[in-house]
Amino acid sequence: MSEGGLKAPTRHPLDWQNPDFYDEAKLDAELRRVFDICHGCRRCFNLCDSFPRLFDLVDASTNGELDTVESKDFKPVVDACTLCDMCYMTKCPYVPPHEFNLDFPHLMLRYRAVELKKGEVELADRELAKTDRNGKLASYIAPLANYATNSAHKTARGLLEKYVGLDKEARLPKYVSKSFVARAEERPIEVNRDAPAAGRKAVIYATCFANFNEPNIGLAARAVLAKNGVETEVLHPHCCGMPLLEQGNIAEVAESAKIVATELRAWIRKGYDIIALTPSCALMLKFEWPLILPDDANVKLLAKATYDLSEYVVSIARKEGLAPGLEPVATGGVALHISCHSRAQNMGQKARELLKLIPETDLQVIERCSGHGGAWGYKTGNFETALKVGAPVARQVAEGGKAIVTSECPLAGPHIAQGVDRLADGKEKPKLYSHPIQLLAEAYGLSAGRSEPS
Q1: Mapped to the 3 state alphabet, what secondary structure does the chain carry?
Q2: Rounded distance, CA 312 to CA 277, Å?
Q3: Closest to 195 (Cα-Cα) out of 318, 316, 323, 321
Q4: What proportion of the chain, given as a percentage, has pLDDT over 70?
Q5: Less packed terminus of the chain by CB within 10 Å, N or C?
Q6: Global pTM exceeds 0.85
Q7: What whole-number distance in Å separates Cα of residue 120 and Cα of residue 65?
Q8: What is the pLDDT of residues 403-441, one digit of tens each?
Q9: Segment 160-210, tens digit of pLDDT
Q10: Beta-carbon neighbour count of residue 350 at 10 Å?
Q11: Residues 399, 404, 406, CA angle at the centre, nearest 5°?
């Protein structure tokens, strides 16, 4: 038996179609096996709130060991997991191929799948996870939706907290009346045929967030790619299913994967790369879907063809070279947060490499969890915990004094900004950019790069 090792982590496909996956006795036995190993190691004590909750449970038990902790007390440990994968990717020495075979995030996912099967997921949570539907509906009433979700409107936010479970202090995403897909269809874009990378073709997978909440990310990406000779198509066949995965709804995620992979198959066969605009969606397409549908040929094809947005731009810079014309833009410097779902893609700090392409950029790189964890960080009871987990990031941003803060995760950025607000103490706060690609667009002088005020 070895203590950890130098081999790269590997992951087993999710056995979610096996009845044993939902057997509560077998689930409890696996929880106890894994939790006992975690209790004996404790290397993950500072990653998220799951591990402190687990260790506190054990320490407060009758004999200080897991065998005197009741199974019903495991739920808060599971609820605190945001499926960020950082324990698996960066901390745990016992992940496969180690014989202990630990996969803490996927065990938490299994627990939630059992909860879902038993009908224990709240209706409000199930409805909030339908991001495609919610985005389409909200686009029709965007001004009203944005009024109701604005934290300055106490009555509306109080009602949302009471009936939907969204913390009244959490800064929620705004909606737009016209989606990124619709804007792209209305605005033909001229491709620079003289760029070194001319001839590349890519489908921009719009993602729910860029499509319905922050189309500037997509518009900036499209403009930068056109400047660099990349012919693009903008598509959004369906949500990637990450919000559903957080609830353990693996079957619905599998359906999402089939829809998207089937539609994008024809584009891949025509020589198009696939670019996901947000790290969580890229992670789903590249890694999670193949573990859920390991035998689906379309899913395998899509996983191999998919790039994270920053990863793709950096690949152009490395292989062909970028089109000339980049000018300094970030006077006062940039604080860059490397998101967990970027790190989980195991591709290196591509956002850092992207921003280093801009001349004279004073860059502060922060590689630590923001604490937000997707929809988890918005919820009543989680929001303050999310700020606590993300406090080291907010503190580094506040103390760094940069003029701009950005993250590849468009949910992490505003959450970090809220943390900075609490630490600002009257000092000038950095301007928030939704994605580093917007800075690259501005450096090219492309109007699509302009960011909304934070």
Answers
A1: CCCCCCCCCCCCCCCCCCHHHHCHHHHHHHHHHHHHHHHHHCCCCCCCCHHHHHHHHHHCCCCCCHHHCCHHHHHHHHHCCCCCCHHHHHHCCCCCCCCCCCCHHHHHHHHHHHHHHCCCCCHHHHHHCCHHHHHHHHHHCHHHHHHHHCCCCHHHHHHHHHHHCECCCCCCCCCCCCCHHHHHHHCCCCCCCCCCCCCCEEEEECCHHHHHCCHHHHHHHHHHHHHCCCEEEEECCCCCCHHHHCCCCHHHHHHHHHHHHHHHHHHHHCCCEEEECCHHHHHHHHHHHHHHCCCCHHHHHHHHHEEEHHHHHHHHHHHCCCCCCCCCCCCCCEEEECCHHHHCCCCCCHHHHHHHCCCCCCEEEECCCCCCCHHHHHECCCHHHHHHHHHHHHHHHHHHCCCEEEECCCCHHHHHHHHHHHHHCCCCCCEEECCHHHHHHHHCCCHHHCCCCC
A2: 10
A3: 323
A4: 97
A5: N
A6: yes
A7: 29
A8: 999 999 999 999 999 999 988 776 788 999 999 999 999
A9: 999 999 999 999 999 999 999 999 999 889 999 999 999 999 999 999 999
A10: 23
A11: 100
Are the C-beta atoms of residues 237 and 219 closer than 8 Å to each other? Answer: no
In angstroms, what CA-CA distances link 267 with 232, 264, 273, 274? 11, 5, 8, 9
Measured distance CA(313)–CA(351) in Å, rounded = 9
Q: Tokens for 369?
A: 């969890």
- Closest Cα to residue 42, out of 66, 22, 25? 66
Q: How far is CA 131 from the centre of its chain?
A: 14
Strands 231-235 and 306-308: unpaired
Q: CA-to-CA distance for 288 and 168, rounded, in angstroms?
A: 32
> For 170, phi and psi rounded to 5 degrees?
-70, 135
Sheet containing 334-337: order of strands: 363-366, 334-337, 404-407, 431-433
Mean pLDDT of 35-64: 90
| Residue in the structure block whose two tokens are 């693009």 | 232
**What's the number of CA atoms in the CB half-sphere (13 Å) around residue 274?**
31
The answer to whether 441 and 327 are in contact (CB under 8 A) is no
